[in-house]
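Data availability excerpt. The first of two example chains:
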Amino acid sequence: MDPATDGVLNVVATTGILADLARNVAGDRARVTQMVPDGADPHSWEPSLRSVRDVAYADLALSNYLLLEEHALIRTLDSNLPPSAMSVSVAEEAAKNGATILPLVEDRSLDTVWLGMRVLGDGASHGANRSSTVDLTLTAAEGPGHASAYLVTSFGAPEIGFTTSDGVSADADTSLLPADAHQHMSWAFTKPGIYRLTFSAVLHPDGTRSTDGAAPVELGSATAVFAVGVSGAEVAAAEGRSLLGAGHADLTANLSATAGKGQTGGVSLAVDTASLPEDLAERAQDAGGLAAAMSVVNLDDVVLEVPPRTLTQVPGSSGYRFVGEPGSDVYILPQAVLGKHVHGDIDPHLWHDVHNAAAYVRVIEEALIAVDPDGADTYRANASAYLTRLEELDEEVTATLATIPQDRRHLVTTHDAYGYLANAYGLSVSGFIAPNPGVEPSVADRVRLAATLRDLDIPAVFLEPNLARTRSVLRSVAEEAGVAVCPLYGDTLDEAAPTYIDMMRFNADSLAQCLGATPSKERP
C-alpha cells in the first residue's frame, strides 16, 4: 500500500528509542518508522533515501533534538516534512512535562588545551532556526608544516574539518555547525614552530546554499596563533599576547556579535572561565546563556599552546594520510570527547531516567492527539497503560541498582550519556573515555585511567554493545588492570534489547552484576 494514500497515520521518529515509545502510545492507529537504524549512532548517522521517503509521507515527526542527532538528519527532517505535518522536539517539550534536565558535564582533566569549534547564540536576530548552519572556513594558513583539524567518529573514522596538506580551499576546508552548538576536534601540526590560521564564519539562516534561499550572513574573520612544539611563553611574550595552555576552548562563530564591532567580533575564542589566565580574564566577556561557564576573548589576545609532549606518530590507517605519512611525527591536540558529537550545553540523553521517558510519553501522547483528534481515547488509554509499565520499570531499576554497594557505585564508560542514569539512581560518573583507534593514547592517559580504576577500586567498566568490536583505551587498560568490561546501552537499541524497557532492564542488570551485586530475576 502507498503510505501517502492508505489512510494510516504516518509517524517518523529519528531514533529507535523514540520510535519504540511512540509505538506504545500509537498502537495500531499509526505506522511508526525510525530514521536511525537500531545499532547505529544517532550522533553521526546521516539519512538514507528510505528515511527521506518516510519523512515526505509523515503526518508527525518526532526528534529528540537538544542537538543529539547528526545535524544533516535534522535538516533532512525539517526540509522534507510536508507543510501540513507536525514536528516535535521531544526532549525540549519533555522539560515542560516534568522531565529533569542536566547540564552536559565534560572531562576537564586533559593536560593540554581542549580545542573545539562552537557557534555562540541561536542567531534568532538573523532569522536562524534549528535547521540553520554556520560555516567555519579556513581561509589562510602560515606555518612551518601542515595543519589539520578533524574529528574521530565512534567507529574510528576521521572526518576532516580542514587540512593544509592539499592547499587551502573553501570547499574542502569548511566545518558546518548548527546554531548554538559546539563540537570537539583533534588538531594536528606536522612540524614545530608558529602557525597562523585564519578563519571566517558565515551563517546560512535556512541551512542551504541555494541562491533561492535566505541571504547568507557574513560574521567576520580572525586569526588563531599556535605555538607548536616550542616555548609558548616565549611566543606569547614576543607577540604581546596571553598564553592558553590548558582547559576547554572553542574557536567560536559569535551570532550575538556583529562583525567588526565590539571586543570579539564575529569569530573569537570561547574559553572555560575557570581556565582563563589572570591577564586574559581582564579582557574577557561573559558568554552568557547556556554557555555561562565560558568567557569570550579576542583571538588577537591569545597564543594557543601545543606543547612538545603532544608529539606522537601519524596512525597507520590510510584514513589519516591527510595528516601525514604513517609513522611520521606529528603534534596533536587530542579530541577530548571522542566520537562524533556535535552538541549543546544540555545533556540530551534524558531517557536514561525512567521518569524522563514518562515525560517523553506524555509529549508524544499530546502530539498524536493534536494530529489525530479522533484517536484521542485510544492514545490516552495506550499512554496510561504504558506509563503504568514505566512506573513499574522505575521501581524495578531502582531496586536492582540499590543492591550495588555504596563504595562500588562508580561508572566508567565510553560515552558521555549516563548523567541522567547516575542522577536518578544514585551512581557516580567517575569518567568516560570514548574509543579512539586513530591516535595512540599517551602514557599520561593510560596512567590516569589506571589510577582511577585502582584508587576507586572499580570492579568493572562499561562499553556500549555497538562499540564492542572497536579498539578502545578503556578496554585495554581495564584488561591490564584485571577489571571486567561489561555492556551498557546508550543511544540505540538492538536485537538483544529491542525495546526501551528491555534496554533499561538490561542496563540495570549489567550494572548490578558487574559492580558486585545481584542481577534481577530472569524475564521472558
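And the second chain:
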Amino acid sequence: MHFHYLTELIQLSHEIEQLGIPNSRSASDEAGFIDTKAKVLEILRVLYGEKSREFRVVKLTYSPATVVKVVNYIISRSDRISPQTKAVNM
C-alpha cells in the first residue's frame, strides 16, 4: 500500500471520528462527513478499485462509524502486510 494513502486514510479517519462525537449534529457536520467520505472513496478507488468490498461498503453507508471501521480495518491489514512479509511470502 502506498504510504501517502495510508497516512491520508488515518487523517480522514480522525476527521470522521470528530464528526461522530455525540453532540447536536448540524448540517455542517453532515456536509463535512460527505466531503470526507468522498475523499475516502477516492483513495479506495485508487487502492482497490470500485468493485472491492471496502469501496462498496463505504459507498453504500451513511454511518460515520462504519466508515471509520472500514478505514481502521484497512490500516490494521496494511500493518500486517508489510514489505517484509510480502518478501517472505514470495
